[in-house]
Amino acid sequence: MTTLSPNVFKSELKPIWCPGCGDYGVVQALYRALSAIGRPPHEVAFISGIGCSSRIPGYSTAYGFNTVHGRALPVAQGVKMANPDLLVLVAGGDGDGFSIGGGHVPHAIRRNMDLTYLVMDNQVYGLTKGQLSPTSPRGLETVTSVYGSFEQPINPLLTVLSAGAGFVAQGTPADMPGLATLVEEAIRYPGFAFINVQSPCVTYGEDDQQLRAHKTRMKSLDSVGHDPSNFMQALEKSTQYGTELYTGVFYRNPNPPKSYDVLVRERQETLKPAAVPRERMLDMFLQK
Amino acid sequence: MVTDIVIGMAGSGGDGIVSAGDSLVSAAAREGFHAVMTKSFGPQIRGGESSCRVRLSTERLHNPGGALDVAVALNWDDFLKFGAELKVDGHTIVVYDSKTGIAPDKLPLVGVMPAEVFSVPLTDLTKSSAGTEKAKTSVVLGLLSGWIGLSREVLLAGLKRKFGKKGEELLAANERAFEAGFTYAAEHPMKKPLLMQQPLTKGMGKLLTDGNDITAAAALFSGCQFFGGYPITPSTEVMQLLGREIWKYGGAMVQAEDEIAGIGMTVGASFAGKKAMTATSGPGMDLKTEVLGLASIAELPLVLLNVMRGGPSTGLPTKPEQSDLFQACFSAHGDVLRPVLAPTCVADSFDVTVEAFNLAEHYQTPVIILSDQEIAQRKETVDPIDASKYTVLERRKPTESELQKYARFAPTETGISPISNPGMQGGAYLASGIEHNELGAPSASGAVHSRMNEKRFRKFATLHQRRDLVRVEGDPEAPLALIAWGSIAGVCREALGKAKAEGLPVKLLVPTLVYPFVEDVWREFLMSVKAGLVVEQSYQGQLYRMMRMFLDVPPGISSFARSGANPFQPVEVLARLKELSFSLQGRVSETQRRDA
Amino acid sequence: MATKGIDFAKLNLRDALDLAVLIEEEARDRYEELAEQLEVHHTPAAAVFFRKMVRVEEIHRSELEKRREQLFGKSPVMVSRAAIFDIEAPEYDVVRASMTPFEALEAAMKSEVKAHDFFAAVVPRVSDPEVKKLFEELRLEEVEHQQWLKVEMQKTPAVKDVPGDQSDGPNEQ
Ligand SMILES: Cc1ncc(C[n+]2csc(CCOP(=O)(O)OP(=O)(O)O)c2C)c(N)n1
Ligand code: SF4
After folding, report:
1. Which of B391, B533, B566, C118 has its C-alpha lying 20 to 30 A from A209's C-alpha?
2. What is the distance in angstroms between the Cα of C85 and the nearest Cα belonging to chain A?
């Protein structure tokens, strides 16, 4: 595959994100990753839910689908099953993915379609103006948790690892080229791949969750000698979500099983000879 | 000789009553009869009371019939639990197991004097012939074969298919039980024999299927290549059949984690360019509402089958009702129009499903099929299809030149814009639930919103003209009217026949396209109407109320509605019609007197 | 501010020039992105300044590119944008809706300081004398830019935007 210029993937729509929002870096990383993969934009389907982050498909020249809040994963799976040849990307916020859409996550993982799912985790609800999110740290004061929240945050990394995801990574636009590499790797992984992107909300996010803080806090998993083929190590590292800002691949299944879409293909091929002509479709009901 | 017969049987689940009904209806279909079979169960998962009704006829059937011609009770407690579903009246011949210990003149049927009663030593006959009590229904099949003249050979062949695989001994025992019943019938003839006339198409096997299975087959016929759904009674058979067959046609079926995911995947597959479908029932419909709106605004084709059951909430999961009409038409925030179609019988489910896919693809819209538990799960003989009679439409793809400067929601004259799909070069666009302009770019502008709303409504202009999607039967000038939709239309069609035979001036309107109203046809129909009934199986009479919302309804038209599980009988509709006719004559003569 | 996979001890002049071109290119592109963000968010004065920076960085870039072509022709470029990040480009989080021109200048100043510090840091690691000379030259250029920005800042009212002062809060959907 030849590489395409990242600009090929940039659409004419101008992002409406707040100036300085982390999502700007994410979309740049995406252009880069797609350019490295080299599939033309019309062979890419980019599906999202609702939220600031879910606006992202509109900013690429790929086929985009900005669906409803929390339902990006089901729609994306439908797309992939209908046309396994497509490169399917899914994106959304932490609320979209782990609150309203949380029920779909383990099932998407269970099915293991060849999809790449980016959660832009800003620990807060951006689009609806700063309410508590499922990844907000305990005690966070927001407009809906005025005296501090009682809830313990969801750990996205641990959640997807324990559900059986074959590729789990974390990145931040504070290291945009690194994020681009992760996205590229995720796309190349032949199955369900998850990236938790710590993408700061400049408008409602906490100070210690901003790009500046990321730059000092982030620690690459490589640098601490992490072995991404080691599931137990991955679990252990991922428990530090919220305290350590690790970047890189937590887990990559060294022996990826066949993905769902491949199995769908195979089944179609096997059963195709049993098809009857359309006009004889009702023969199966014949009582002879 | 009779041409039409309704048999009702009840027992406990362990008796295999429904399985006996299956044998009966399958044999009838093989013989070339028209047949309809419905079943009904108690709430127990297994082993509770169960019942079935089998109606056989030499003529085409529209419904499962009214009061029973033959009632078979293996056990009176079980039989009585089905109430009006197994209605016994003065013309019914009652057959029951004498082991119940109830005297023929002391039957627990309040105020009913059946035409003839047979207290048959069913249990004893079974034990002495088969050597076990477990073959009771084979004795029943033998009895029925003898009494109504349904081919002994065909029924025996059916037993062979059913028990052959389970061992020689079991088969032989059931065959002996069958013969015992057959002989008993020969030795105890009915006072007024009920022998069936042989069908004209004798020996020509018929197709036997139910509404769910034929809907699935119709989806495949239409080129459906994706189904995403979640199991729910009484719609699950659709996904079960597709899960077996769809792969052969390059498609996929997936059991989603819930109904939201089911329709989400379906929308996704449609976005990817495939004809796609999902199916559910009441509670699942509730969950699908949001994504349904997404399909409307993103203008993506999809077919959603709702097999109605009693509601709200879990309601009556195994009984039919027509109470989801409001939901099908109106459950959406925002201004939405989506076609709602309703089949009237099993065979009609095929045509309606093909039409649903056509409308969905042509208008780029979700289309709802409102079937109900009765149609969905009743077995019925249907004729083979003539494929050449059907057109199968595809969505309007963009041309090469349109792809040069592609606008997904281009404001065409018809309002229908060319639709691309991922993989198509030059066709990339953003589909979205957020309002968007002609190019698909999100917009918060009021002007764009009203412009796009107008487009999304304008595209249905030709749908409102689809006169063929409303069926009108009977004398067009008749002052008496019946209006019905879905399975109740079959009851009314039969009532219409009976009314005509009695010389009543009646006509019938049955909308296949229930919503939006094809107003011209309705208006013309209502013009001559002085009195009429809108017959519906719901508490509110939802179609009647919708008529009052969209049409000028003559004051003589009233709602004849009641909730599900208590089926309408053609004779009661006829009785109501007679009352109406009577009062109409009264009114007419009143005016004549005044005029004079 | 980071580079990846570049061994400065082994860096030759051609690659060093290409690296310099990419650093200017990154800065140019970033100013463009940020200007766009500000334009969409009704912060025109700061945007106008960032547009100016786009032109400035483009001039620097094309000058360096010309030099590279004179010396090495069109031979393939061996360094890639993936090797650098945020060298002279202002960081993504320097922009805010309704930021003032003065704040925009401050952001640019920070970037120039950053670039200066980058070259200052790598010069000692370089072994090729010509590369050393080039980087030293570039470092001094950054000092010049800083001076220019300082003058601009003196001409500009030192007003800062205080969030929530008068502007409406963010819109919701
Ligand atoms: C069914 C439904 N409920 C609520 C909303 C309102 N809503 C829109 S986005 C959102 C949450 C946004 O947070 P997140 O998903 O984390 O994305 P972000 O905006 O932070 O990128 C909510 C609650 C909606 N659009 N739909
Ligand atoms: S509200 Fe937060 S998440 Fe949304 S665009 Fe603004 S900065 Fe980004």
Report:
1. C118
2. 7
